[in-house]
Amino acid sequence: MILAIDQGTTGTTCLVFDADAHLAGRAYREFRQHFPRPGWVEHDAAEIWDVTRAVAAEALEDAGVGGGELRAIGITNQRETVCVWDPRTGEPLHHALVWQDRRTAARCDALRDAGREPLVRTRTGLVLDPYFSATKVEWLLEHVDGLRERAASGRACFGTIDAWLVFKLTGEFRTDVTNASRTMLYDITRGDWDDELLGLLGDVPRAALPEVAPSIGEFGRVRDGALGDGHDGVPVTGIAGDQQAALYGQGCLDVGLGKNTYGTGSFVLMNAGEQAPTAPPGLLGTVAWGIGERTVYALEAAIFVTGAGVQWLRDGLGIIEAAAETEALAASLDSNDGVYFVPALTGLGSPHWDPYARGTIVGLTRGSTRAHLARATLEAIAFQTVDAVEAMERVADEPLAELRADGGATDNGWLMQFQADVLGVPIAVAEMAETTALGAALLAGVGAGCWTQADVARREGEQARYDPRIADDERAELVAEWRRAVERARAWARG
Question: In the chain, what are the domains?
């Protein structure tokens, strides 16, 4: 049995897979979101650990896994989120700063104005944006009393969520190459923390950052009853950030294959091979995974708010009680009646990279209803994906033939059909929506010797396919109106 821990932005999912990579058990719990100020987003790392332990135990119980029956653990996680803790006590020293957090936007502007973005792009494949970890680490060092001195003396360490979970499970301080590549402190070509960037972005002590290892291999072994009785000694043998894990779980092991994961945000990744890509404007270059001495890279488009927009309808506006209601509401209308929602609730990611964009609803009339808002929210998920894919196609040798899709929103048949319609290519929906967890399990299984890379490549798992059904002129008009709405949202917070 393999345990996959999928530690997401709003909750933790644990899945258990058997020797044939079939699902044997599952469990899920949400945890609290903290919003101290507008644009600030935090998590309690201690709560995340407590929830992870509880959910893992529930999943193992659901699968009937007893002591000695668990072969390995895989971890996948929300990327870029920064935890800081005392390595002696294992206690957090501040709330984790979440990838959605925008508090360092002005710092990124200052670095850009100082001409530092080319350095960041060349070394890391990323852009100067508060999305990434580096300016979050710098903010913590500057604003948490005594933290800089603690970090310099070895009494504080920083890590993304995977490193936090590995530390709590095993006592080891390690991360994998995919998560390191999202920090804006890691040279993806040399494969090491970059001293120039460490100095530029807050004089981060190298010793306060985790050891970087390939995505497949042993990171440590469970100790001190961290997973309950009978599981001490089980190795963690696979780690990847959630989007890289989904790329692996979708079997995109060949150059040019791509996927979109529909979660809190949405992320389009395309396998770019074993040479670090020069990312074009609007896109990111990132590490897809590392296996031994081999590193595979990907092009990525990052969309910040997709499923989170549906959550806002539920929790912020209270116009739905469950996300599933949006499918029937959207289908109840013959068209969007000109209503568009740009869900820039935490700025805009690819291809705009505008941290000052803000959520905007246009086209409202007296006849607008909650169905229009629900439909506009689903349409926005699809339109943002179109923007991302078109940015990739501008630099790709061949246009995208199909888009492989996974994530919770793939259960929404109306959304998947609309996505195919406005993208103009088929959408192939994965048999298992939780492809991030599947990818973590497959990485761990390969790391534990249960499967081979060839086994992963041979897997089949398409559940449904949606073909485009609208004419080119209708598609072009819908996308043009969407982009007109996006322009209204751009740079709004600048005044």
Answer: 2-242 (3.30.420.40)
